[in-house]
Amino acid sequence: MGGVNKVFAPLGGKPALARVLDAFESCDSVSQIVVVVSKEKLERCQQLIAEEGWSKPIEVCVGGRRRQDSVAAGLSRLSHCHWVVIHDGARPLVTRDLIERGLEAAQETGAAAAAIPVTDTIKVADTNRIVHQTPPRQNLWAVQTPQVFRFDIIAEAYKQAKGEVTDDASLVEQLGYKVKLYMGSYDNIKITTNHDLLIAEALRQKHGK
Predict the structure, then answer these.
(1) Is 31 contained in some domain?
(2) What is the DSSP letter of 81?
(3) To pair with 153 at 20 to 30 A between CA atoms, which of 4, 79, 190, 203?
(4) What is the pTM of this model?
C-alpha cells in the first residue's frame, strides 16, 4: 500500500474504516462495537470516532501480533453479548444486509461465515509448483467476513486455540462445530494493494455510496 495503512486509506473522501463503522452503526441488531488496531494507530482511530460521532458505543483497543490475538483482545472487551460479528476493517464495502443475513444464518448452527463461490479453477500444488490435485470447483467457496458466532462458541474456540489460523471460522471448526456458509458479495473485497483500492472506489461509485 506504499506506506498507507489500508484501514485508513481514503475511499470517497472517508477512511475505509469509517465506511465499515457506518454499516455497523446502521444495523439495528448491533448494540456495541469494538475496533482493534495496532498501538501506532490507536490515537488516530480514537480521533476518527470522536470526529464522526457515531451514536453506538465504540471502544478501541490494541491488538496482538497475530490476527487471532487481535480478535481475542476485541472479544475480551465485549459485555453481555449473545452474538458476535467479526469483520475485517479492510473490507469497507460491507453492508447492513450482509451483516443481518449473517446473523440470520448463524441461528442454524451457532456459526456462519460470508462466502462466495469460486469462479476460477483451483490447483493444489507442492512447494515446487507441481500440481497434485484439481478439486471440484462446485465445492469451493472463498470465505469473507462478516463471520458470526454465538458468543460462548467463539469464546471457547479462542480459549482452546492451537496453531495459527487465517480466519475465525477455522478455530470453531477445530472444536467440531458446524459453520454455515451464507452468500457473501463479490463487491465485498478486501483491500490489500493500491489496485484493490481503485476497484473499491469504482464499486463505491457504482452503488452511489
Answers:
(1) yes
(2) -
(3) 190
(4) 0.92
